[in-house]
Design goal:
The protein is an alpha+beta fold. The chain has helices spanning 31-37, 62-65, 79-87, 92-103, and strands at 54-58, 74-78. It starts with 30 loop residues before the first helix and ends with a helix.
């Protein structure tokens, strides 16, 4: 049987922490690209910013397929459209088309 030291009263034993994963990507690589992608409206449904919170969505997810912070991969969405994008109700091709039309002024 291996000896286990008893922690002193009032002190917690150290937690087993996972070492940091060097492969894990940072949440935001290019803050300027995200800033430029923001709009005062949802690029899918047209809802204006005055009535709802918005977020910039990565069309190709950074965590799964290595999507990047380039304009072609970013779209500004309201809460409802963002949820629908994550659930697959709005597909990636539609998101790409809507973002491209908005960038081109249609």
């Amino acid at each position: 049987m291996e000896f286990q030291p008893v922690p002193k009263p009032g002190k917690r034993p150290p937690k087993n922490k996972r070492p940091p994963n060097p492969q894990k990507q940072q949440r935001i690589i290019d803050p300027e690209a995200l800033k430029q992608a923001r709009r005062p409206y949802c690029q899918m449904c047209g809802l204006s910013r005055s009535s709802e919170n918005f977020s910039v969505h990565h069309i190709v997810y950074r965590s799964q397929q290595g999507g990047s912070d380039i304009p072609e991969n970013l779209i500004n969405l309201c809460v409802k459209c963002h949820e629908e994008a994550h659930k697959g109700i709005i597909n990636k091709d539609t998101l790409r088309d809507m973002a491209a039309m908005d960038r081109e002024g249609f």
